[in-house]
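Why do we bother with a discrete structure alphabet at all? Because it lets us treat a fold like text: something you can write down, compare, and reason about line by line. To make this less abstract, here is a complete entry for General transcription factor 3C polypeptide 3. Read it the way you would read a sentence in a foreign language you are learning: slowly, and without expecting to understand everything at once.
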Amino acid sequence: MEETMDFEYDEDFEEDNGEEEDVVVDEEDDEYVFRFKSGVNPLDLTENNASGLQVYQQFERLEYEALASRKRKAIAATRSEEDVASKSMYEFMAAINYGGFRRKSRKLSNTRGRRKGTKNKLNPQVTRLLGEATLHYAHGRFEQAISVLNEVIRVSPNTPDSYQTLGLVYKELGDNRKTFDYHVIAAVLTRTDSSLWKQLFAWCVEKGDTAQAKYCLCKAVGADPKDVGLRFHLASFYVELGDYQRAAESYKKIQKLCPEDVEAIKAGAKLYLKCSQLEHSTGMLEEYLNGHPSEADLSVLDLLLAILMQNNAHAKALHHIEHAHMVYFSGIELPLKLIIKAGICYLFLGNMEKAEIYFAVLQRENANDHADLFTEVADSFMSLEHYNSALKYYCMLEANAGSDSGYLHLKMAQCYLSLKERGQAIKFFNKALQTFENNIDARLTLASLLLEDAREDEATALLSPPKSLNSVDQISDKSSQWWLNEKIIMKRCHIYRAKGMPEDFIDTIFPLVRESLCAEALRQKVKVKKRLTRSILNIRVDVCNTKTDSILCGIRPIASKSDQLKASRAKKLLLKKEKLKQEKKALADAAGVDWHSDDSDDEPPQDVRFDPPLPNLLKDEDHQHVIIDVCKALISLQRYEEASDIIDLSLRLAYIKLPLEKKEQLRALGAQMAYDSTDPKHGFDSARYILHQHPYSLAAWNCYYKVISRLGKSNSKHYKFSRYIRAKHKDCVPPIIIAGHQFTAASHHQDAARDYLEAYRLLPDDPLVNLCVGTALINLALGFRLQNKHQCIAQGLAFLYNNLRLCENSQEALYNVARACHHVGLVSLAATYYEKVLAMKEKDYPIPRHPNKNPDLAGKQESGYCDLRREAAYNLHLIYKKSGAVDLARQLLKDYCTF
């Protein structure tokens, strides 16, 4: 449709734009008049619109294309003039004289509209048809009126009256869309008539169509640029849309039309200031003041001074005050407000003495009558860090202030805080919180001051929820519940942690940490990529599971290998979806979110709009420290399952965001938890990861062995990990010894001896390895299937004697040799070594503990827990008793085993 219509430039439609040179094109471009070309059916704009655009949007596009065409013509004309300039002077003068390059003047007259004799007159046939259509419309014959008006549009498509009448007909028929469209066409064809555009603008506002309203209002302003009311509407409209730049420009044009409109000037200045255009803002106000040399509205001067002082242009503001004194208040005293502003300007310019002279007038004024001036002076002193001077004026206000003095007390508290007068600061912060109990910053500052005075109980009470809190308060708006603020909670937790109160610390912060982590996990679960729907998966599964009523019932139908593979995958996906659904439900319950799900997942998953109580838990470094502290406190309280959940969620959700140091700390805590807990499965992965990072650390292997010793005999994860470590680190001895220990515990002594001997090949001088090989060979020799038992016993004793040599005849090594001899029946030799054990006393050694475990929390063993004399005496008494020396056996028990 756009190909059959165009904007045509009408040379007879000229106007004087001398006062409107800076007009925005979309508002007041009067250089184009729309005309339908011959052979065009304008009814296609509304009846057969295939483009999907509204009528005004089609006109916008055509206007843009016409403007672009005009610019192209102007560029071409400029180039032709450059060609003319390159010609000789004779040719150029001849061209001018004969009018070859003469351009028509755009300012032929000061009147708007067409020149005389150029207005197109309607032919008699069109006039008659319009009258006939009007009669049909007046008598309610709307169908006949539409038919006649369609004929008028066909004969004369550029007659606006026909479209306007047609719009009125459709209005009576209740077709609002066509009513609006035909009125738009009529308004476009009568461009200078602003009344139609005003009516269209009102209709658009009623419909709530912002785009159409803006278009119609701009056209109305373009039709009548001197209509101040329209410009006010346009400026207000731009403000509502948030386009403050154009709104300010509209007020600027209103100032040109009505220089006395003070409200428009002030509104424009504020909008320019909002757009960070200080020069334009002050320029509007200064233009008004310059245009009123003898008398002016002082509110304009007050606004100008406020803007200049706000932007640190105090010298310029002082100049305007002095000029106003000479011009507007010549021979009389300045108003009190201007005197105070002059004093503030001198204060910021560094002339303290002169500023105090100006401020002296406040001494004889009532603070209640001029509270804003007292406050402005005090705030100025405070901003310049003259806190004592600021307090002088704040105290004047406090002496005369009413009950609502919360802001005043808050500022006084900040002054005393800056002066390091902690007692006064606490006093006025308490007064301020009586009025502004939801002021988070004031409450936190007061809590810090109380902590500096070692008043932890008062600080805790200040940050704790009110004791009179009831269920109604808990259900109400959370924005008014200051005790639920993130900063308040973190400060209270800091106090509990510093005072060593893990239970209170956990009760305060753990629910919020868990809720935040679960909410983040739920959000990530919901945002998973949408795959095949449940219905499609069920169809694929049924392809290979369909049963029939024929004699082949129960036999799977014939299906291709690809269909069978799809069915297998679909079955796995259905199980996975069911598991995922249960996980989402569990996370939603933990996060406190209502989870509603049906059996169908054909709809795409919707994003969960849930704000966690600690939104920056995984990003902020301080909050990451809180997670670690929470895990430590949970472990100290032996709440291992909850600590495991926090560690797992944190590592899974913030694996990329967490620094390496924090990850190591969390995994170390997980390993410690597995080391201490009776159910070590929660920290098994952490202990295994630490061994991945430190495969040769004996402390890490000790922790890991203690963990797996509680997991039971059949733990597939451990066996896979053990095979992986032994294959990757062939020279690593601890996993070999652990495997030997496990074979020994299962009474597989031959396999244990094989692993111990492999460790002996790597560490032949290690006492523990020699001890393990010796005990394994001794146990193997006592079996039923071994043929060379004596040789095996001798080899075992050889390793035990090697252990005795490496341990330098220690009590423990002597006891091991004695116990081995006793075990194989060499009682005489065993008695000799038991007596050697009884002859020496062993001192106590510290028990090895987990490196991250707090030694203060561990229980202490009784004295003598490393001495083996009681064990040796008991075993020796058994030998004596069996040999018949009962008295000697009784004496051994009396000497060494009596408590």
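What the structure line is telling us, in plain words: The chain has a mean pLDDT of 76. The beta strands are 6-8, 33-35.
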